[in-house]
């Protein structure tokens, strides 16, 4: 006997995952419908693959910041589960893209244009925070120096900058903050003011703040900017652990070397338009990046990480690059 549940078109894929994780599943390649065929719920049969709702779906969006038009008919979609890097120089539109995610800016209203998050055009911050965790460059610079470590994390429950007297935190929320500090190796800094931490420690606390609701999607903005080599590598290793735990990563950056190997897709953004979009190996080429940054560079790949060097592609087999491959 089987039980199949009705799901409306566009039903949340995470809901389906929750259902399927608790039942024995038999898959069939049939239309995307689910029908009740028995009252016995011992088994769920999924008829075909349920449609995956994009994290963000932008269609023909024209977006202004003040009087400056940043995007003109931008079209872009990122599905949940597809680790994606958005790479571009300063002025490419990366910050405006982040503000579309956080609903700080909206596109010009016109027929055939929309910006949807998880299938919806309207969100309140309380609902969105449970789905999407964001660590922005602006947040790092705006965070007050006097706020103590644990309170930095707790502020994520209210999406506030610091904690305030009217905010009440439950024992479960405090325990969640403590667990994140333990996970990130920063428990001993719980009572340390934010301004007395190193840049790497500050980034870890802000990352923990973004994870208090255990969101499915993590958006990082220039995450290793200003970090020394050790802190940069430690932070990237931490992000890779989160990916391994099932988080979807959207990385917004101008630094090719901080793109983790798990990222499958790269979008090159230049002056508000998509210059290239596709699999990482096809997009991160010397020709594409020379065009993107308007200077001749060569791309080197090593153990899944990419780096750029100036000028012509280096010859492999000599010096420090003996295990690297250049990508034209």
List the helices and strands and how they pair.
Layout: H1 13-21, E1 24-28, E2 43-47, E3 54-65, E4 68-79, E5 84-87, H2 94-101, E6 114-117, H3 125-128, E7 132-135, H4 137-142, H5 149-154, H6 171-184, H7 199-210, E8 217-221, H8 229-244, E9 248-253, E10 265-270, E11 273-279, H9 280-283, H10 286-293, E12 297-302, E13 305-310, E14 325-327
Helix pairs in contact: 6-7
Question: Can you put this structure into words, describing what you see?
Answer:
The protein has 328 residues and is α/β, with parallel strands linked by helices. It folds into 3 domains: 1-51, no CATH class; 80-103 and 122-280, Rossmann fold (3-Layer(aba) Sandwich); 285-328, no CATH class. Helix content is 27%, strand content 26%. The chain has 10 helices and 14 strands. The chain has helices at 13-21, 94-101, 125-128, 137-142, 149-154, 171-184, 199-210, 229-244, 280-283, 286-293; strands at residues 24-28, 43-47, 54-65, 68-79, 84-87, 114-117, 132-135, 217-221, 248-253, 265-270, 273-279, 297-302, 305-310, 325-327. The strands form 4 sheets. The protein has a 6-stranded mixed sheet, sandwiched between helices. A 3-stranded antiparallel sheet has the order 4-3-6. It has a 3-stranded antiparallel sheet with strand order 13-12-14, with helices on one face. The longest helix has 16 residues, at 229-244. 31% of the residues are buried.
């Amino acid at each position: 006997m089987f039980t199949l549940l009705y799901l409306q078109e566009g039903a949340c894929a995470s809901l389906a995952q929750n259902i399927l994780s608790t039942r024995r599943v038999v898959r069939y390649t049939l239309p995307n419908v689910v029908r009740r065929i028995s009252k016995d719920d011992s088994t769920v049969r999924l008829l075909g693959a349920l449609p995956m709702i994009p994290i963000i779906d932008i269609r023909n969006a024209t977006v202004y910041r003040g009087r400056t038009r940043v995007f003109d008919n931008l079209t872009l979609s990122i599905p949940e589960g597809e680790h994606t890097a958005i790479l571009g120089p300063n002025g490419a539109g990366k910050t405006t893209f982040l503000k579309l995610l956080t609903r700080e800016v909206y596109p010009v209203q016109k027929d055939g244009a929309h910006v949807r998050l998880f299938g919806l055009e309207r969100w309140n911050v309380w609902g969105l925070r449970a789905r999407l965790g964001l660590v922005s460059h602006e947040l790092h610079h705006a965070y007050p120096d006097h706020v103590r470590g644990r309170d930095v994390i707790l502020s994520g429950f209210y999406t506030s900058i610091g904690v305030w007297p009217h905010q009440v935190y439950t024992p479960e929320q405090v325990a969640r903050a403590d667990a994140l500090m333990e996970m990130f190796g920063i428990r001993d800094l719980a009572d340390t003011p934010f301004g007395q931490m190193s840049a790497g420690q500050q980034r870890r606390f802000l990352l923990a703040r973004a994870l208090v609701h255990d969101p499915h999607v993590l958006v990082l903005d220039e995450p290793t900017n200003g970090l020394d080599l050790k802190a940069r590598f430690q932070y990237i290793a931490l992000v890779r652990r989160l990916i391994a735990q099932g988080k979807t990563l959207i990385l917004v950056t101008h630094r090719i070397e901080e793109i983790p190997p798990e990222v499958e897709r790269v979008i090159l953004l230049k002056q508000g338009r998509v210059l290239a979009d596709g699999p990482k190996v096809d997009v991160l080429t010397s020709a594409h990046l020379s065009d993107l940054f308007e200077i001749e560079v060569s791309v080197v790949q090593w153990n899944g990480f990419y780096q750029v060097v100036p000028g012509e592609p280096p010859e492999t087999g000599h010096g420090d690059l003996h295990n690297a491959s250049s990508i034209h």
